[in-house]
Amino acid sequence: MHIRFTKMQGAGNDFVVLDETQGRLGLTTAQYRFLADRHFGVGADQILTVRPSPATGLDFEYVIHNADGGEVEHCGNGARCFVRYVRDKGLTDKST
Q1: Domains of the chain with CATH codes
Q2: Confidence (pLDDT) at 12
């Protein structure tokens, strides 16, 4: 499987960012773990995913997976990288 990704770093944490705005990749917990592996994968503290808005009034869905493949709710450094990513990729032009 070939996966397009962006590698980012924020305040000492490194991230793999996946764009699923055009379709879900359907990755398993093991596949997220493999991506985060520093020896055999890309290597990351967390994997950040941007998905289309799940509801009216929201710009995107933001999903975070830890290096162990589990989904988590928050990551401050990741949020900054996420915003930079959606702006740099032209997915939004909003400033707030």
Answers
A1: 6-88 (3.10.310.10)
A2: 86
DSSP letter string over the chain? -----EEEEETTEEEEEEE-TT------HHHHHHHH-TTTS---SEEEEEEE-SSTT-SEEEEEEETTS-EES--HHHHHHHHHHHHHTTS-----
Sheet holding 71-72, edge to edge: 6-10, 13-19, 46-52, 60-66, 71-72
Please indicate, yes or no, whether the overall pTM of this predicted structure exceeds 0.85. Answer: yes
Q: Which two tokens stand for residue 67?
A: 């290096």
